[in-house]
Structure formats: structure tokens, C-alpha cells
Amino acid sequence: MIVPVWNGRAMVERLMGSLRAQTYPIAEVVVVDNGSEDEAPEAAKALGARVVHMGENAGFSRAVNRGIRECKSDWLALVNSDVELAPTWMERLMAAAMQPGVWFAAGKILSAAQHELIDVTYDTLSRGACAWRVGHGRADGAEFSKGTAISFAPGTASLFRAELFRHVGTLDESFESYLEDVEFGLRCACLGFRGQYVPDAVAYHVGSAALGKWHSDTVRRIARNQVFLVAKYYPARLFFQLAWPVIAGQTLWGVVAMRHGKLVAFLRGKLEGVMGFATQRRNAPATGIEPHGLLQILQESENEIRDIQRRTGFDWYWRVYFALTAGGAD
Fold first, then answer.
1. How far apart are CA 205 and CA 135, in angstroms?
2. Does the predicted TM-score (pTM) go above 0.90?
């Protein structure tokens, strides 16, 4: 198990307690410390974790990749330090992940502050390169209690076959944090690796514990990484075909940021994305997938967003997005 840590001693202790209570034995817990200043790594070590020190705040992606290199298990669970796991979390994910054709598994993650609310189940991605954490902020219920095949596992708390990283590579460190798990999921989808959503594998998440949900750096990175996704995965022909959904989706996300007083951070992120566009283009993964194949992946994911939003009530962002883009991808 890999746990990136940057401060938050009390949360680390709570997570370690939930790991010790798992009904499925965990061979090793590797805590990758990003330069904590509050003795969080020392607390983890005292509770049985092996601590790897990065020596600085190297970012989420680099910390996870270091953890992947350090772990020797056939199965790797990635869990944020601000998560608490139900005792059967690992057992139920393992049961699903061991099925043929399943390369990763994600469970139902509820809000730590309000257990009746969904934090995230799994991720989806629109044609506009904007992601939705399925169910976020909605009341838990039947809609989110059905298992399904997925393409995007949230980096918050998920289980992966170690072999998967040998096939598709590790997290893109240029993304630092935010959407790095979506980029990884899109890479997996392009190469034909799918996962499973397991609703009875339950965890509880504080959410944005390090910086805060609407911290300027959070907004900047999300805005930048939306552009990076386009640069890496949308070849010229597909880019021009999807130019309007990209413009509409990402501009609307800027409106969301502006409503939270973060327009400057949003614009800085977009500028960074444009400045890094050519580099991301050069570093695009060799998936071998044709533009029509990628478009199909994006259409299927966007259709899922629209269908779940329709059944559970539209957020204003998605209502406007689908109205502007002719009702979604059919």
C-alpha cells in the first residue's frame, strides 16, 4: 500500500488505525513523505509503516511513483492520507480485482464530515477535457450502489495490479497533482485496460486536506492540467473536431472558479497550460489508438456523465455544458 503524506499527523494516525483493522492482510504500508513538518511520518513509522523520505514537497505524482518503485507486491493500493477505510475495504476490492480482465478497482468514497454524502465513486471525462467525480456532493443511494466497469479510478483510494504500471507507465509527474489520475485512466482506456467499481468497498475522505478545495494552487493546477490533457491526447484532427466542447467546458469551469474568487488562478493555469502545450504534445503516450477510438472513449464517458446527471439532478455546470454542446455526445 502506498500513502503519500504531507503533514496531517492526526489524519495519518486515523488512516493507519483503519489499515490495521482490515479483514484482508496488508503486506506492507509504504508512506512516502513529501517533507512533512508535523511529525506525520514519525507517527506512521511508529504504527508500522515503512517511511520513504522525498526530502521536499515533490508533489503527489512524484511521491506516488516513488512508492510504486519501492513496493514489491503484485497488488498496489493507493490511498490518500486523509482517508479512513472501512474494515472490509481491501477484502472487497481484492475480490473484484482478481476477476479476469479487471486491472484496478475503486470503491465508494463518502464524505468524512457527512457520511450520507458521496465524495467520489469513480471518475469520468467529458469531450471538453473536464472531469467529473461521479456522485460528488450527492446523497448516497441506489444510483451509487451498483457495480460497473470503469475506466478512471480516483487516486483518492484505489487498488491496482502492479503489472498495470509496467504496461502503461506511472503517473505523469508534470501534472503534479489534480487530474493526474484522470490522465492515467485515459492512458489505460486507450490501451484497453479497464477496472471495476465496487460500491460495498467503503472509505471516508476529508478532501483537499493539504491545500483546500478552492486554494489558488488547486485551481491553477486543474486549469493547467485540463489543457495538458488536450495537448497529450487530442491530435490535430480531433482537436478541431472537439474545439467547441473544449472551449465551452473549460470556459464554464473558469466561471465556477470566478464564482469562488479564483479567476486569476484559473487564468494563470490556462497560461501555464498553453506555454507547456508543445512539450506535452511531444511527450504524448504512444497508445496506438486512432482519433475515432479516442473519440469513442470520450463519448462513452460523457454519455455516462449526462445519464447520471439526468437521473440524479443536473449540476448547473453540466446543464449549461450539455445545452451549449447540443445535448451531449450521442
1. 14
2. yes
